[in-house]
Amino acid sequence: MDRSKFLKTAGALLPLSLCSKNALLGAMNTHQKLSPDDNQSFNTGDLALRSASKIPPYLQKGDCIGITSPSGHIQYKELLPAISRIKSWGLTFKTGQTIGLKDGTFGGTDQQRATDFQLMLEDPAIKAILCARGGYGAVRIIDRIDFSSLNKNPKWIIGFSDATVFHMHIAHNYHMATLHSKMCNSFPDNWDKATEQQKATIDSIRDALMNTQKMHYRSLMNPMNRSGSAEAELIGGNMRTIENLSGTRSSLEAAGKILFLEETHEYLYNMDRMLWNLERTGQLKHLKGLIIGAMIRTPQRDPNDEMNKSIYELVMEKVKEYNYPVTFDFPVGHIVENYALKCGVPHRLDVTTIGTTLTEL
């Protein structure tokens, strides 16, 4: 992700990307339930069996969502559209001390942001923590935060983009579900004038947090898709952030899972390099499935430096030796159609010649 460009546009809903014309949303009620204590296993050669991720309690009316800014700075007035929707869901909210703070690009100093996040983790009244916005800064504070309270008091951590740091760290160390979704700065200012697509993405956060219905998404066929089906936990997020965490105690562990990736404002050669990192570190070898969301590229300054391949071709050359399903243009990423995805929760992925469906189990 080109942070300088993203920081300038983070306060507004971004225009449609490659997948905008292909992304469709569906909702479907199902009756199958999974206990957080059920064990899941997968056949990946010599890899050991692992237990299923724990799922934090779903929110009930009256529960509290904490709003903090662990990355970029944001003003309280920018939270008002999100606060309005949270209240309409029958939930309450509590804003952290970082809201309104500014230290360069950050929402306060590293210590202020880490302390604010820590207080929300340890507050039993807060049932979920919503990152106010992305940008950059989570990696600077991740090692200052003690997440061990999640073992006794699990709660949903919500966000995307730079919040991928939290998704990866919690999955790696605590095997707990988190929510990849829009943040406060992406809620429409005027709900009555918002498009149905904007409303649907925001309502998907409510549906995921309150478990009002099982998540179910569709995207249209892409000729580069590879057909197949898979059932596994979801994991994923921003590709650049995942690459930067490689080799750390917050690194991606994708074996036996359905991996989703998104990226924005990057040159194609940078995306290629990120994909090679995933391949060379073995992250693509033992997947159950691969979901490629919005990949918003930056045109090369010099046309002579342009790569003679599409993002679709760059992905497929890394996974051509494997036989799991692959789907492109899925509605996730720095786009309007950025629907909530439950990381660490089992889903079924079906990629066919007529389209793709992803259904929570």
TrEMBL record:
Family label: Belongs to the peptidase S66 family.
Active-site residues per Swiss-Prot or TrEMBL entry: S161 (nucleophile), E262 (charge relay system), H334 (charge relay system)
Provenance organism: Arachidicoccus ginsenosidivorans
Hydrolase as UniProt keyword: yes
Protein name listed in UniProt: LD-carboxypeptidase
One example GO MF annotation: carboxypeptidase activity
Keywords assigned by UniProt, alphabetized: Carboxypeptidase, Hydrolase, Protease, Serine protease
Gene3D superfamilies in the record: Class I glutamine amidotransferase-like, LD-carboxypeptidase A C-terminal domain-like
Ranges where the LD-carboxypeptidase N-terminal domain occurs: 65-180
UniProt cross-references to Pfam families, sorted A to Z: Peptidase_S66 (PF02016), Peptidase_S66C (PF17676)
Taxonomy of the source species: Bacteria, Pseudomonadati, Bacteroidota, Chitinophagia, Chitinophagales
